[in-house]
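In response to a reviewer's request, we include the raw inputs and outputs for one of the modeled complexes. The two entities were modeled together in a single run.
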Amino acid sequence: MFVLAMRSIRQRPGRFMATLLSAFLGAAIIMTFNSMHDTAGQRGVDSVSAETLSTTAAVVGGYGTLLVFFAVASTVTVNIRQRTAEMELLRCSGATPGQFRRMVVGESVAVALIGAVVAIGPAMLGGRLLLEMFQDTGQVADSVSYSFGPVALLTGIDITLLATVGAAFLAVRRATRRRPPRGGARTLLAYAALVLGALGVCSTFAFSATDAALMAPPVYGAVLLSAGFALLTPRLLSGMLGRLPLAGASGWVAVRTLRERASQLSGVLMPLTLFTCLATATLYMQAVENDVIDASGVPKSVDAKNLETLNLTVVGIIVVFACIMLVNSLYAATTYRRREFGQQRLAGATPGQVLGAVGVEGLVLTATGVSFGSVAGLAGILPFTMVRTDSVWPEQGLGMWLGIVAVAAVATLGTSLGTARRTLRTPAVEAVALAA
Amino acid sequence: MFRRNRRGTADAGPAPEALRLVKVSRTYGSDDSAVTALDGVTLSLARGTFTAVMGPSGSGKSTLLQCAAGLDRPDRGIVVVDGTEMTGDGEAALTRFRRERIGFVFQQYNLLPTLTVAQNTILPLKLAGRRVDRRRVKEMLTAVGLGDRLGHRPDQLSGGQRQRVAIARALVTEPRVIFADEPTGALDTRSAREVLELLRDAVRTHGRTVVMVTHDPVAASYADSVVFLADGRLAGEMPAPTVDAVAERLAHLGDGVTAGV
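The model returned the following structure tokens for the whole complex.
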């Protein structure tokens, strides 16, 4: 089975690109930030520098790791769910479900390892740049040299492997069962994430306003909350869909497709919710933080300005990562629907009608993901603002949030419509004949 | 408005000739590696007939069906369905042409896995923006023996049942011509017989025209006549086919072509 797994990767590298890309980016992010731990742990690093470095590693590296875990897991899930046809074929050629499971899990181990190993180089480069930024802004002494050590390496490889293999195991177990399961493990995971998230958000109040790591618990909490929502929403969604007033053939097809595919939607909803939540939470918190520094009466020095830029850059990296993951898994999910689109066309749908249905689905997805992501993000922002300032609501307007929503909508609709359009170039008869 | 009118005139009376192909050619690939799948095929089928198209693998029978059904465009030649020439360029125009006149049955059923039996059946009507008469849809599904499975999804049905849904779906738009591509290719003998009887019934009772590509002499024997194809050209016709006669003819199809050259 291992040989088959390796062959399956070699023969169709394209199919593994989405998983590989997410494993690579995820590992790179984790290693970049966690190498700050290694750098701080070197002998001869002064205590101020060491604290700055390990705070960054703990805060950003921490929630970044959590984000990577969920994002990678959802990409893997999306990809494995699409392989039922191949599974049927293998079953017909005499493979037991156990063999198929070992094959899929074996593939994911290989892909995750390749991704993580390839990520080492870029992560070292990224870490070095990050350290230079710290040194340029005077946060870290110039004498500190960069180190890429066991913490970065181990967390990077371990988390990527755990997310990939865990998700592969759960997804393939679901796929090889003859009867559709009730999703017990999934529900449990969702509730655990929600409870932990709520605890994380509440624990913000245990910190003092000047704590360097004050931003960590609310963001952790928000990320967990949005992951929990993303796991639970498909079920809520399928209930709500019946009441959507959607007219036209495209709307009719979209609603029915969404309702039936609701259980598979969490794979796409996850990165969307995570992106919205993380972008909203971190950008607003950073803005609040900057305002507090401004208001502290000290005239704005060059250093303070640099610090703001630095913080936004760090947050920006994570937000961009979340956005790439969103595009990545949507692309994978839509490519796999070539056959379904072909069948719609053979039943008499014009290309415009197929795209119309995809567009309606995209709108429903965006609305759902953005709503839950915003709620989760807000749940992180409010405690932070309450502890850091005297008010409950941040003073920043809705402008930033609208920007985030716009990016989420453009990424979701743009990716799904663009990918669907590409699949429509294949004649319908061929599209239907292609095996996945 | 324009579309309604066109449909209106078509309803006024179907053309006596359901399908006509004039010197239809189709070549795949380019230059050196070009393969001629259809080589100047001319064919005319009257309304209310059941025709089987047969030939060895690679004889061009699937290409013939796809060109005639507007799923593929011939390089040269004319395709006329129900008295109207197929001229649309672009998939949207071709799709509109097809859904007014043509129904499909495929070997792999091609039902949408996310829709129920009833929803799959009314899908072509929904897509064409036509009124859905639920009572009639139920009657239609009852007629193919699936009146009690309206809410089932395709993966809960056997192959034979899926194909019967596909036939109901093909009939629901009241098309002039139904194209069937190896409709029994994936079925056991009993299911195959049911499917073939339904197709024959569509011709006899409802006056539809059915064109079926098959390699199975038994399936072909349900048709009124068989058209043989070899190397992209017509290689004869057999009215009132029997299983043995078709099998015999098929076995010697290669000889006939060689002798003719």
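As requested, we also summarize the result in words. The mean pLDDT of chain A is 84. The CA atoms of residues 234 and 263 of chain A lie 6 Å apart.
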